[in-house]
Amino acid sequence: MAHEELPILELRNLCKTYELKGHRTVDALKAVHLELYPGECLGIVGESGSGKSTLARCVTHLERVTSGQIRYRQQDITRLNGKALRQQRKQIQMVFQEPSAIFNPRMKIGAFIREPLINYKIMKGQQAEQEVLRLLGRVGLSATTADKYPHELSGGEQQRAVIARAIGVEPDIILFDEATSALDVSIQQQILELLVELRKETGISSIFISHDLAVVQQVSDRIAVMYQGEVVEVVESSQLTSSANHPYTRSLMASVLSVREMKHKVQAQKQEAEQEQEQEQEKVEVLQESLSG
After folding, report:
1. Cβ partners under 8 Å of residue 137, min gap 6
2. In angstroms, how far is the first alpha carbon of the chain from the final one?
3. Which of 150, 159, 171, 293 could form a disulfide with 93 if both were Cys (CB 3.0 to 4.6 A apart)?
4. How much is the pLDDT for 284?
5. pLDDT single digits (tens) 266-290
6. DSSP 105
């Protein structure tokens, strides 16, 4: 798909090398080139160790790249530091896999969401308090959540609170790094639906990172497939089955199909067992009626 707009984020030949003991090195990222366009959701999929989380940490400046460029709105932000970096982090937010690791256990949820609003001088006082309640409602949490501590929330509720904090500063880009993988399937689906809704409403660009191809395909416009630190293929989500050419992408697709087939088989067996149970119950009821008569 051709894009008429300029990319909001561009990674040019991004490399990240880790130095290990014994003068050994590991190339976590190898000349990665990717573009993210305004309003787009770019999925990044790959197995553990493929480099996808390293990529997210480099984009958000939690890690320094070894070489290459990170360009935001056509400006090189690769080596930002100090106040400039702090301001840049407002524009590129990140939602991690484990929300519990982000919270201060002694800070209530309301204060947690309000904190960046105050720190970035977006609003203050009563206005910030009202904004917290609005954000909670937007992610499907009640107003009473503001007075709760992190340990009083479920994993899904914690992730919703983290998302509320991230969208509160009105960033241009949000990175979701395995943001639903620690949740059970039903809660995961609710969070994915929330992300789709928020994207439609706000127009925020996003990068959704996961090892699960089916999940990535559900929320993304395009999918970048990473393998051993490289982007081996970028395909349109809607054309994945017909356009994917790389053997690794094909293997991911095959594993997704096998998992789906297994789920369908388990579901069919469950339904069959329930039907048999109902039939047995009906027989018991008929027998009881005949005996009582």
Report:
1. 143
2. 73
3. 171
4. 63
5. 455 566 667 777 777 776 676 667 6
6. T
